[in-house]
Design goal:
The chain has about 190 residues and is α/β, with parallel strands linked by helices. It has a single domain, classed as Rossmann fold, CATH 3.40.50.150. The strands form two sheets. Strands 5-4-3-6-7-8-9 form a seven-stranded mixed beta sheet. A two-stranded antiparallel sheet has the order 1-2. A hairpin with a 5-residue loop joins strand 8 and strand 9. The longest helix is centred in the middle third of the chain and has 13 residues. The N and C termini lie far apart (about 30 Å). The structure holds S-adenosylmethionine. S-adenosylmethionine binds next to strand 2, helix 2 and strand 4.
C-alpha cells in the first residue's frame, strides 16, 4: 500500500493503489482465498495483480501462482515487491487476463479480482476438472455476486454465490458486455 494509506490497511474498505485501481479489503481477500478451496501444492491463476497482496497471500498457500495485471506499471511494481519479499513461487506479467495464461494452464484455482458480466471463456477452459474459479459477476455495475464455479470431472460447471460484492471493472476484452444467453447471476443459489 502507498505509505500515506498504511494506517488504514486493515479497515473494511478497498483502498487506492494508483492508476484508478484499488486493493480489496483484507476480509474479501480472505473470503475469496478460502472459496478457492485449494488442494496442497495448488497451481493458481490470478487475474488482476494490483498491489500484489492477494498474490502474496496465495504464495503462502499454493505451490505456484501466476498473476496477470493489465496496468503495466502495477504489474512491474508488484513483480519487484513480491521478488523483494522472496516469494519465488509467484510469476507476474502485464497483459489482458481475459485470455488467461494458457502456457501455464491448467489451474487448480482461478481467481479474478475485477468484475465483469460474464466469466471469460478462456478462464473456464484453463481450469482443471475438480478446480474452482472465484470471480465477481453481474449484469451491470454494481450488481455483482461473488461467484464460485466448480468444474466437475466431466467438465460440467456448478455455480453458487457468496453474496453481493462491488469490484472495479475488468477492462480489456472482458469489459462489461452482457450476453443475454447467460444466466442472470442475481438468481444464483447461495453457497451456504
Ligand atoms: C481490485 S484490483 C485488484 C486487487 C489485487 N488483487 C490486490 O491484491 O491488490 C483489480 C485489478 O484488476 C486489474 N484488471 C482489470 N482488468 C484486467 C484485465 N483484463 N486483465 C488483468 N488485470 C485486470 C486492475 O488493473 C486492478 O489492478
Amino acid at each position: 500500500m502507498p505509505e500515506s494509506d498504511r494506517a488504514q490497511a486493515y479497515e473494511d474498505t478497498p483502498l487506492p493503489i494508483g492508476y484508478g485501481q484499488t486493493i480489496s479489503d483484507a476480509y474479501i481477500v480472505t473470503v475469496m482465498t478460502a472459496a478457492l478451496n485449494l488442494p496442497p501444492h495448488a497451481h493458481v491463476l490470478e487475474v488482476g495483480t494490483g498491489s500484489g497482496y492477494q498474490a502474496a497471500v496465495l504464495s503462502g498457500l499454493a505451490g505456484t501462482v501466476h498473476s496477470i495485471e493489465i496496468v503495466a506499471p502495477l504489474a512491474d511494481r508488484a513483480k519487484t515487491l513480491l521478488a523483494s519479499l522472496g516469494m519465488t513461487n509467484v510469476t507476474v506479467r502485464a497483459g489482458d487476463g481475459f485470455l488467461g495464461w494458457p502456457e501455464a494452464a491448467p489451474y487448480d484455482g482461478v481467481i479474478v479480482t475485477a468484475g465483469a458480466a460474464e466469466i471469460p471463456p478462456p478462464l473456464i477452459a484453463q481450469l482443471k476438472p475438480g478446480g474452482t474459479l472465484v470471480m465477481p459477476i453481474g449484469p451491470e455495475w454494481p450488481l455483482e455476486q461473488l461467484l464460485v464455479v466448480r468444474k466437475a470431472a466431466d467438465g460440467t460447471l456448478d455455480r453458487c454465490s457468496m453474496g453481493p460484492v462491488m469490484f472495479v471493472p475488468l477492462t480489456g476484452r472482458g469489459e462489461r458486455v452482457r450476453n443475454p444467453a447467460e444466466p442472470d447471476n442475481r438468481a444464483t443459489a447461495a453457497c451456504f
